[in-house]
Design goal:
single chain, 3-stranded parallel β-sheet, 17% helix, Ribosomal Protein L15, Chain: K, domain 2, two-stranded parallel ribbon, alpha/beta, elongated
Length: 155
């Protein structure tokens, strides 16, 4: 292999602008004089630029406190009618709901799960998840059991 057969690879360096008059791109750094395009910050071509009016992000109110999803995460809701697909006598916990594909694993671990009393339950099951009063009544009526009604209880 000789020098003439090598491919001519030249990697262009980025221009260093605003580094004094000797560089050829000093003072105004090739932006011309004055005007909106000569200035810094957000450019006219930026997707959030709105022609100089107050931007949407700054027009919206701050979100603080109880209703903010960052501070208060509500649990995933599972109604009783969905639990009819599970086998009779099954112990229902977070792992069971994930296994049968009723809830998503990541969401269930992040937000938690609560059983609500929507619909009717046909088979007797044992539940060890947070549960509403209405759902508790329907489960006991169907011949099931409720363990650990409170999510913070240690049973």
């Amino acid at each position: 292999m000789n020098q003439q057969s090598l491919s001519n690879v030249i990697k262009q360096r980025s221009k260093r602008v605003g580094r004094g008059p000797g560089s050829g791109k000093g003072k105004t750094a090739g932006r011309g004089t004055k005007g909106q395009k000569a200035r810094g910050k957000i450019s006219i071509n930026h997707p959030h630029f709105e022609g100089g009016q107050r931007s949407l992000i700054k027009r919206l109110p701050y979100k603080r406190g109880k209703g903010n999803s960052k501070t208060s995460k509500k649990p995933l809701v599972v109604n009783l009618k969905v639990l009819n697909i599970l086998p009779k006598g099954q112990v229902i916990d977070l792992a069971t709901l994930i296994k049968f594909g009723i809830v998503n694993k990541e969401d269930a671990n992040r937000f938690g799960v609560k059983i609500l009393g929507g619909g009717n339950l046909n088979n007797s099951v044992t539940i060890s998840l947070p549960i509403s009063k209405k759902a508790t009544g329907k489960i006991l009526k169907a011949g099931g059991k409720v363990i650990g009604n409170n999510p913070k209880s240690k049973e």
